[in-house]
Structures are given as C-alpha cells and as structure tokens.
Amino acid sequence: ETAVFQTPNYHVTQVGNEVSFNCKQTLGHDTMYWYKQDSKKLLKIMFSYNNKQLIVNETVPRRFSPQSSDKAHLNLRIKSVEPEDSAVYLCASSPDRGANTEVFFGKGTRLTVV
Amino acid sequence: GDSVTQTEGLVTLTEGLPVMLNCTYQTIYSNPFLFWYVQHLNESPRLLLKSFTDNKRTEHQGFHATLHKSSSSFHLQKSSAQLSDSALYYCALSPRGNTGKLIFGLGTTLQVQP
Predict the structure, then answer these.
(1) DSSP letters spanning A73-112
(2) Domains in chain A, CATH or no CATH each
(3) Cβ contact B98–A103 (<8 Å)
(4) Measured between beta carbons, which residues in chain B are less than 8 angstroms from residue A53?
(5) Which of B44, B102, B103 is opposite residue A106, by nearest beta carbon?
(6) For residue B102, what is the domain's CATH number?
C-alpha cells in the first residue's frame, strides 16, 4: 500500500517551461528524498531533507529546486526544463537518516520534455 | 568514490532454475550497509533485503544474500525462480554518515520464462 503520494503521475511539457511536482508521505518519517530514474533505469539521488532541512544536495543543475514546508511534504520545482530532464522522478521517505534505514518510494512522476 | 556494480543488465532464465544476480561495491568505509531493492513493472522500488554483518546470510521472501567484505560482494540468490520474480533488481550501498543516501547500481532485469 502506497504511503508516499506523488502528483502528477505524468507530465508532458515543452523545453523552457517550469514544472512542479508534489510529494506527501503519511508514514510519519523524518527524512524525504528525490531520486531521478532515467530512461536506462539509472536511479540516482538528487536531494534529501531531514525535518525540513536540506542534508543532501547532489550535483544537480540549478534549475532544480526542492521545497519542504514540513517533514511530510517535499516538492520539486524545475525552472526551464531541458530534454535531458525527461525521466521518472521518485519521491521517497525513511524513518531516519541512518545508514541502515529503509527507504519507501512513491510511484513516481514521469516527466516528458518535448 | 562510492559505487555499486551490477554486471548483468538482463538475466533470462526458466522457471524453477536458480537465480544469482551479481553485486560488487566500492567504498572507503569499512562497515557499509548493502541493500537489494526490487521494482516490478509499473511499481515503485521496494526493499527486498539488507545486510551489515560480514559473512552472515540474510533472507527474505525466498531470496538470500551474504555480505562478503573480503570480496566487496553482495550477490542475490534464490534456489528456484518463479514467474512472479520477473522484475528489476537494484543493489544499493549506504555510505556511512547521517544522510540516508543510497547509491544504486545500474540494476539487473530478471526475466523468468515458463
């Protein structure tokens, strides 16, 4: 049963547009993430937040900006999308940020940039 | 830096045969956590099993893996494949540090045929 909810499921947009993706978790977890899964299924972390604080910011283009209003919500905004941004964006959460923590993924938002 | 290698992109086998998916890793940390995540078609990745202890077998849902620090390996095995095992399998490494960050391999698609 999904407890990490993402909207929208799909989004098609043109190069240069701005998009926003929403994520909410109902597990009471402290830590949330954005991962990118590209067309070759490579799964790579983009950002991590713990109690609304940014703790991981991988080498991600500046047009990507995460936003967290509280520990249950983590949104992702992309200003001026580019073709290489086409991917599935997976939101996730975990109880804590320990090395052994289990990460729970949402169903993803599939972005297609045309 | 930290990395995970999964040598097979696609493994195809017949139902009933044993499964072995390879995973090796590189990290500067002496006590990493290793994970296997499974992603079925049109679903999100979910944890299959994890380990921290050297040379100790970990089992879940018929799958098992043993972390071998001497060879930096964490291969996934199952004695008898089922059709329902067809999925994308990710090996992942959690570097030490308080971030919850996971580093994923490229994934291995397992196709089980009747």
Answers:
(1) EEEEEESS--GGG-EEEEEEEESS--TTPPPEE---EEEE
(2) 4-113 (2.60.40.10)
(3) no
(4) none
(5) B44
(6) 2.60.40.10
